[in-house]
Specification:
Blueprint: E1 8-9, H1 11-18, H2 22-31, E2 37-39, E3 45-49, H3 50-70, H4 75-78
Antiparallel strand pairs: 1-3, 2-3
């Protein structure tokens, strides 16, 4: 999956696009895994550039490969979908 490099996303757009929790996106921003732009002062407005999303997705893919293909972690255990639904 790739997004347009020149796109700019709100956190809620990424949450919907990637089907992840808002906390996942905010945590990635806070840890520096996902670059974000802040406009204004105080609370401001937060946006994530498409280039940053693509870099983050690449990092997540590498981590998945290392954990599930090279490592011994179970993808089923990491998935947040109950087994009876999958």
């Amino acid at each position: 999956m790739r997004v347009e490099d020149n796109a700019v996303f709100r956190v809620r757009d990424l949450v919907n696009l990637l089907d992840v929790s808002p906390n996942t996106v905010y945590r990635a921003i806070k840890t520096g895994e996902l670059d974000a732009l802040k406009f204004g002062s105080g609370k401001g407005t937060l946006r994530v550039p498409g280039t940053a999303v693509n870099v983050w997705l690449g990092t997540c893919a590498e981590r998945g490969y290392a954990d599930f293909v090279q490592g011994d972690q179970s993808p089923e255990a990491a998935d947040d979908v109950p087994a009876e639904v999958a």
